[in-house]
Amino acid sequence: MLLACLGLCVLLAGPHAIEAFSLRDFVRPGSNKRDAGDKSPCPTWHPFECPSGECVPIKYLCDGSPDCSDEYDENKSMCTAATRPPVEETALFLKTLMHAHGKDFLVKVFGEKARNELAGMGGVDKVAVSLSQSPTADVFAKEFVFNPQEEQGMIGVFEGILNGTPEELTANEASDFRFFVQKLQETGFFN
């Protein structure tokens, strides 16, 4: 199979089979939007697909200037998630904590709703998504309908971990949680 391109591409699939097409069929200058129903992935130079169909370079995501017509590339939840550990890693981290310290360990952090491996909060995956996407602790708390005491309790545990004075956790438990809580702090979770 031979492929030659210079504005017009020629594909030689066999001794006599020739197929020609224009690069313009695949790349339209001045347009990053694909036709409705186009199932092909975005090109490598514009790999992020907006829900509205445009393809945007990664470097333009969360840069303060909307590039998607629906402004999805500046969505606060998505931009927050881009600065935090991936949801899959967060879910695995939470599961590892519960495996190491007991299935109800996270009750010490999130309160009674976290009993039974976070069942009262919708499960590990839902909590992991929210920790990745919630810009602040109060947004996280609202999602899980925390009352003010539950929210302050969670923040108190996290602050104790950061300050090295966790009252609710053992030194070992706090140590296991510290890196993740530092990531939350660095990305504005406590603002």
Keywords:
single chain; 191 residues; mainly alpha; 3-stranded antiparallel β-sheet; two-stranded antiparallel ribbon; 8 helices; 10% strand; disordered N terminus
Question: Could you explain how this protein is built, in words?
Answer:
The chain is elongated. It has helices spanning 76-83, 87-101, 107-110, 115-118, 124-133, 137-143, 148-163, 171-186; strands at residues 2-6, 8-12, 18-22, 48-49, 55-56. The chain contains eight helices and five strands, in the order E-E-E-E-E-H-H-H-H-H-H-H-H. Helix 1 packs across helix 5, helix 2 packs across helix 5 and helix 7 crosses helix 8. The strands form two sheets. A three-stranded antiparallel sheet has the order 1-2-3, with no helix packed on it. A two-stranded antiparallel ribbon has the order 4-5. The model is unreliable at 1-12 and 20-31 (pLDDT under 50). It is 42% helix and 10% strand. With 191 residues, it is mainly alpha-helical. Strand 1 (2-6) and strand 2 form a beta hairpin.
- Overall geometric form: elongated
Give the strand content.
5-15%
Number of helices: 8
Assembly classification: single chain
Radius of gyration: 24 Å
How much helix, percentage-wise, in residues? Answer: 40-55%
Low-confidence spans: 1-12, 20-31
Total E-strand runs:
5
Q: Strand order across the biggest sheet?
A: 1-2-3
Biggest beta sheet attributes: 3 strands, antiparallel
- Distance from N terminus to C terminus (CA atoms, Å) equals 58 Å
Following the backbone from N to C, one meets helices and strands in this order, namely: EEEEEHHHHHHHH
Structural class: mainly alpha
Mean pLDDT: 82
Keywords: Disulfide bond, Signal
Organism: Mesorhabditis belari
Protein name: Prohormone-4
